[in-house]
Amino acid sequence: MRIPWRKEQAAPQAYVAPISYQDRMLEILTQLKIQNEKLNRTIERLKHRGRELFEQCVRAEQEKDTARATIYANEIAQLRKMTRTLLASHMSLDKVVLRLETVKEFGDVMHVLGPATQIIKQVQHEISGIVPEVAHSLRRVDEMLESIIIEAGNVTGGSVYVTVSDSEAQKIIEEASEVAAQRMKGSFPDLPESYRHLETAAEKAD
């Protein structure tokens, strides 16, 4: 007896629940904290290297080896520039984390996250040539934030455009830069007086 042919029914697909807003924000915060800790470790390494170079520069000066002292001084100037950039970026991201932790409701997204995305973009730009792997990870975080902003705009009908000159973001970045400059004075050795001009030259160089 032949069994009549029956079309196989497709197995029902398992239901995959959409990722909640809270889960997405938690992932973003986790990634930001991880990348910020990487920045902090890099800063500490640069400070340690700076102190080593400073001692070598002083030793070369004592030995009247001006050429070698100048090489060390140039390296210190570059390290100070990079460290100040990373320190300001680190503090800016700290502000972003604090800001995101205050977002409790989905409806607050439009008001709260705009400046945060601008700060992350600025930090990406500043550190891309120093710690590119962190900059790449921050780009992914920025994309996640922007997707939430766009979704919130669709729900609320609000604008999702964030201007580059966002005043609040710029204020946070400027404050972080000022604090970074102050902290550098207490944690990173100054160049010997005769080599201070090298730091000025490093600051002007892009």
Outline the structure in words.
- There is one protein chain.
- The chain has helices at 21-62, 66-101, 109-127, 132-156, 167-187, 196-204.
- It has 206 residues and is mainly alpha-helical.
- It has one domain.
- Helix 2 (66-101) packs across helix 5 (167-187) and helix 3 packs antiparallel against helix 4.
- It is elongated and about 70 Å long.
- The N and C termini lie far apart (85 Å).
- Residues 156-165 have low confidence and may be disordered.
Q: Which percent range describes the beta-strand content?
A: under 5%
Helix content: over 70%
Q: How many structural domains?
A: 1
| Amino- and carboxy-terminal Cα gap | 85 Å
Number of DSSP strand runs: 0
- Round the mean pLDDT to the nearest integer and report it: 79
Structural class from helices and strands? Answer: mainly alpha
Q: Could you give a short account of the major beta sheet?
A: none
Helical stretch tally: 6
Q: Which radius of gyration do the C-alpha atoms yield?
A: 25 Å
The general outline is elongated
The arrangement of helices and strands along the chain is HHHHHH
Model regions low in confidence, pLDDT < 50 over at least 5 residues: 156-165
